[in-house]
Write a structure and sequence with these properties.
single chain, alpha/beta, Purple Acid Phosphatase, chain A, domain 2, 2 domains, six-stranded mixed beta sheet, 11 helices, 28% helix, 22% strand
């Protein structure tokens, strides 16, 4: 009997070895062809609000402000705050709104908005308690405009194949009969989308029908639960299964996998949490596991994952709660896959490298940058929390940027931040992030 068992055991081992060889050969035969290509990524690129700007429309403006404040305050309280504490200034000649003075996030913060033809062009905040007499500019419309000019140029020149956005592309879905007709989606079409060339033959042959791909943020769902604005602007996402009830998808291009998840709407009680329900977190993690396993089996080595709320952040809302943070799952694949994660939600730039995974928080795409304000430059983190490689402990500054990604087969991916710092002695610069990653090892 023992002799028979030894024979069976040897036969089993031979079978396992034989199957391993066959699987290895199949992977090599079917391994996707890697080619060099580039793309750009940025996030939180939304403008601030577009107001009805004629003086006889003041009631409409105040109503919009109540809707905005109701996101974090009860309706009745929001109405009282707007009525008592918001001052609207109109030009005496044109009778157009030129300035709004209003409370910000705390009782000691006062925000001043400059307005032109309804659009907020600049926002500054004075904290009368922490830094009285000093106003910090945290938003300039020209910052986002500069980024959009640069990324459109990158694609039109052929330097970048496509654009990725980590969420919060528009303010909300209101102010029109349907979200896709509101001023925010119209602005995006005018400044970016309608200026992009059609996908080239190489992209079409691989199933890519667009030049712009987004992981939905909380603002895409605000006042647009049906996702009409996003799905009308990017109809080609439907071929990947994106729908009002499913906001996650993936595609492969030139031997590289791209995965997009959804962290959910904004909840003021837990502003940084993963509350996405389309599908729920557990189901998203199951699907992420499938997609990462597929990449391993197919011989895909490089994987880029994008979702809105950040895995790690030392500012603003902080990182995602530990019990719903996907880092453990993602990092478990780092020995086999080269994984890069793009996040946003916190309106600044932060970079982390943890357990073999690169995390780029790309929140400097054009929205108001509240992490640069007094009292907000740091948030409490536990001991041993990963270090931010970008600001390196220094307070963040007002900065608008995007990242250019150069995918090089058989070589490390190249990361370059192109940035604009208003008021700086060096307002424009390109920063090699690979040097930062190398220094953290």
């Amino acid at each position: 009997m023992k002799k028979i068992l030894r024979v069976i055991s040897k036969g089993t081992m031979l079978y396992i070895l034989f199957m391993q060889v066959l699987n290895s050969q199949a992977q090599q035969a079917n391994k996707p062809t890697e080619k060099p290509f580039s793309f750009v990524v940025y996030g939180d690129s939304r403008s601030m609000m577009d107001f009805p700007y004629k003086q006889d429309q003041e009631a409409e403006t105040r109503k919009l402000l109540v809707e905005m404040f109701s996101l974090v305050l009860p309706q009745k309280v929001a109405e009282e705050v707007i009525q008592k504490n918001v001052k609207l200034t109109y030009d005496p000649s044109s009778h157009e709104l030129i300035q709004v003075v209003m409370p910000f996030m705390t009782s000691s913060e006062v925000m001043t908005l400059k307005v032109d033809k309804g659009w907020i062009t600049e926002a500054s905040v004075e904290d009368v308690k922490l830094l009285p007499g000093v106003s910090r500019t945290m938003f300039r419309l020209e910052g986002g405009q500069w980024i959009h000019e640069q990324i459109v140029r990158e694609v039109k020149s052929g330097q970048a194949k496509f654009i990725l956005n980590s969420g919060d592309l528009v303010w909300w879905g209101s102010q029109a009969d349907k979200p896709s007709d509101n001023p925010y989606w119209k602005l995006f079409h005018k400044t970016v989308f309608d200026r992009l060339p059609a996908p080239d033959r190489d992209m079409r042959d691989q199933g890519l029908e667009g030049r712009y791909y987004i992981s939905a943020g909380n603002h895409e769902t605000w006042a647009d639960s049906s996702m009409e604005g996003m799905l009308t602007t990017f109809p080609y996402l439907k071929k990947y299964g994106v729908s009002p009830t499913n906001l996650i998808y993936k595609f492969d291009f030139d031997g590289v996998r791209f995965i997009f998840l959804w962290t959910g709407r904004y909840d003021y009680r837990q502003p940084g949490a993963w509350v996405g329900t389309r599908p729920p977190y557990e189901d998203q993690m199951k699907q992420l596991t499938v997609w990462l396993d597929e990449a391993k089996i197919a011989g895909i080595h490089k994987v880029f994952i994008s979702f809105h709320n950040p895995v790690y952040s030392r500012m603003g809302f902080g990182g995602i709660n530990e019990n719903e943070n996907p880092h453990a799952l993602i990092s478990s694949y780092a020995k086999d896959l080269d994984i890069v994660v793009f996040n946003g939600h916190v309106h600044t730039t932060q970079i982390f490298q943890v357990d073999g995974v690169k995390y780029l928080l790309t929140g400097g795409g054009g929205a108001e940058q509240d992490p640069i304000l007094p009292g907000r430059t740091q948030t409490k983190v536990p001991d041993g929390y990963p270090e931010d490689l970008y600001w390196k402990g220094e307070p963040p500054r007002e900065e608008y940027n995007y990242v250019r990604i150069d995918v090089l087969p058989g070589q490390p991916t190249k990361f370059t931040i192109n940035r604009f710092r208003p008021g700086s002695s060096e307002p424009y610069a390109s920063i090699d992030l690979n040097a930062l990653f190398s220094s953290s090892k």
